[in-house]
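User: My collaborator sent over this chain with a note saying "see what the structure looks like." That's all I know about it. Can you take a look?
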Amino acid sequence: AYADYQVQALDLPGQIRPRLFMSNGSHSSQIDESQPPKTHRYIQVIRQTLLDELKFRDKEILVLGAGGFTLSHQEPHNRYTYVDIDPAIRSIAEEHFLRGPVQGEFIAEDARHFVSVTERRFDAVVVDVYSNRAAIPSHLVTQEFWQASRRVLRPDGLLMANLILDSRLVSPYSRHVLDTIESVYGRCAVEVLQKSFRDANVIVTCHAAGQPASRSLYTDERNSADLEKFGIRAH
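Assistant: Without extra context I'll predict from the sequence alone. Here is the result:
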């Protein structure tokens, strides 16, 4: 195995036999036996976006970074493909964490290599790649990686990335990661989930059809807001 995995029982009010999937001593995934199961908040946000807001049905969803395979757990509406560098993670998750089969296909491969060479195309790509709680492998934050992730999206496809950043998004790392993503996808939605924490899950949502654009500012001398808010381009 590429990492040290552990499954721990939790004692959480309102949950049924909750348990935690840990990787290298850090929280990776959480699940219980409720219907539907309770998972980490960021997984709930991604599922709500795809299933409830965008009404994904019969779609192809690529998940880079398997974790505990909770995104597709008890989700019968779409087809999931998980890519993770560790071939051992599936059997460990099935036996000790999910206590049942993973829902979806599993490919043991480096995420960047997969998106660089595959001929398959997906309706959504979910990026959730961590070697521990706060460490994304450095080759998975570069402009070249995000370009490869866009390559595998269908024209109307969607990227959703779970990042661990400082909750104010002011550190050089946070700024550079977000700037790098938007240099490929153009403007993306950025949602900080734990605003009172020092470090937080940050969900970045981008569209394959987006285009990077130079920055334009409204000033007192040059203000076209009244036109552009109605979709009228200023000249």
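A starting point for your reply to your collaborator: The CA atoms of residues 19 and 31 lie 6 Å apart.
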